[in-house]
Amino acid sequence: MIPRALKFEEGALWLLDQRRLPAKVLWIRCSDALEVARAIQSLVVRGAPAIGVAAAYGMALAAQSGDIRTVRTSAAALAAARPTAVNLHWAVARMKSRAEELAERGADLAAGLLELALSIHSEDEEMCRAIGTHGLTLLGARPRILTHCNAGALATGGMGTALAPAYLAHAEGRDVRVFACEARPVMQGSRLTTWELSQAGVPVTLLVDAAAAFLLSRREVDSVWVGADRIAANGDVANKIGTHGLACAAARYDIPFYVAAPRSTFDPQTPTGDDIPIEFRLAAELAERFIEPVSASDIDVWTPAFDVTPQSLITAYVTDRGVLAGGRGQSA
Fold first, then answer.
1. Which of 33, 43, 146, 164 counts the highest number of beta carbons within 10 A?
2. Which positions are catalytic?
3. Can you say how many angstroms the Cα of residue 317 is from the centroid of all Cα atoms in its chain?
4. Closest CA to 7 of 108, 130, 164, 122
5. Considering the domain 132-325, what is its CATH architecture?
6. Which residues of 219-255 are buried (b: 16+ CB within 10 A; e: fewer)?
7. 116 in Cβ contact with 61 (< 8 Å)
8. CATH 1.20.120.420 domain residues, the chain
């Protein structure tokens, strides 16, 4: 069974704590918007579509107060939780606009915003399946897929973006195998991608990030699939740190490199990748991941959470509306 990242039950948002996986399956209850914002910031929930859906529910929780001022304050807190993923800001803006409209009409804030949050969640589920359906046309009978970080069910409100074609291929009975990079330093690939694929019965092989180029050189995979946190107007893609290098290696060995993302991840207001704000994480995520420190205590640590892959390295964008050709000169 494909796991899910979040659910809204009994008037609260429940989030699968992705910091604890795979050792422990723990659900965290959020009863107000600030708890949701803290959960997003601390990586209880992560992945651009998933944090967008979570933020929508956070706004719905804020609306339970019936006070438009509380909704406005909560919108600011949620939008500030993580800067790079455009889905978060898109969802908050959409919820805030509905709140202002409801307040102006004197309508029920709580009911109206919960209705919209449920709709955003449902839309995300449908978009994931549509991405999977379009992506399936790019896979053969025995697909060997390399992916980076986690762009599966745990990163969305549905079955995922980059992993959705693999799930549908597996459901069709195709002989699919996913190779997952570990995605240092937080290890979303080794902790999350391998866990959710194994839960769904999809064969998966884990490799260290540094081995990806060698794997590609040996033609062990036939395509690379990644998600996106933001896609600029010119097609540049912000995704988990390490994506750019993987795209370079895929281009070097002429292996298709696909970016799977819903239309809400495309940001026409951001001209190029140079204009995308890149989030930097705490040094401890890199320097103190294990029982003993993994670096000297007096050194500087550079910890970008994302990098930008230029559109010239992308074969195609697989969206909920179809497949769009990228800049590598290959037909989609």
1. 164
2. 229
3. 15
4. 122
5. 3-Layer(aba) Sandwich (3.40)
6. eebebbbbbbbbbbeebbbbbbbbbbbbbebbbeeeb
7. no
8. 6-128
Span(s) in the chain for CATH 3.40.50.10470: 132-325
Going along the chain, which residue ranges are E strands? 6-9, 12-16, 27-30, 144-147, 177-181, 204-207, 223-226, 230-232, 237-240, 257-260, 266-267, 306-309, 316-319, 322-325
Quote the CA–CA distance of 296 and 294 in Å, as a whole number.
Answer: 7
- Note whether 51 and 87 are within 8 A (CB): yes
- DSSP string covering 164-208: HHHHHHHHTT---EEEEE--TTTTHIIIIIHHHHHHHT--EEEE-
Structure tokens at 84: 């790079």
Radius of gyration of the chain from Cα atoms?
Answer: 19
Q: Place domain 6-128 in its CATH homologous superfamily.
A: translation initiation factor eif-2b, domain 1 (1.20.120.420)
At 227-267, the pLDDT tens digits run 999 999 999 999 999 999 999 999 999 999 999 999 989 99
Give this prediction's pTM. Answer: 0.91
β-sheet bridge partners, residue 180: 147, 206
Model pLDDT for residues 31-44, shown as the tens digit of each residue: 999 999 999 999 99
